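User: Run a structure prediction on this.
Assistant: Running it now.
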Amino acid sequence: MRKFDGDRLLVASHNAGKVTEIAALLEPYKIEVISAADMDLPEPEETEDTFIGNARIKAHAAAKATNLPALADDSGIEVDALDGAPGVYTADWAETGDGRDFEMAMIKVWTKLEELNAPRPRTARFRCTLVLAWPDGHDEVFDGKIEGRCVWPMRGDLGHGYDPMFMPRGFNITLGEMEAVVKNRISHRADAFRKLVKTCFDV
């Protein structure tokens, strides 16, 4: 396992919400977090059908382009009654001809559940795979998840993505209603981050 020993980390994402979340999680380590958007990097095509495959594509492309260690995540929501969909295609379900529309994506998920008359609770989980890649081609991989269920109507305008329709197990509010300080403690990304930090950042 390789330790991170630099003071700048590139987050291989153009998603401002995700970059902010990652920067907050890394704040105690006094690391300057730079995003792919800051560096004007193109978004590589995600051609894999697994979270780890797509995260590796993004992390290695960014590390090679900038000569900086790069952290990428691939994450999504898996709905049990939809056989794990949208899963790796979570962002694709939100694609329109004019950017991503996650409200439309959530409506799509719920409509499919209704069409199937899926039993309640409509269990689901968010999953996250983090890949930390170095310019020399080495990488470290960490997986995280948070279990919960899909609820309707959508609730809350905090968070991003599918957060307003996902209620974590043990809570009576959605991730969309949850303050960032709480979400950053329990989320799938936080779960993966704890493993990353323990392995690569803690002395």
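The mean pLDDT is 94.
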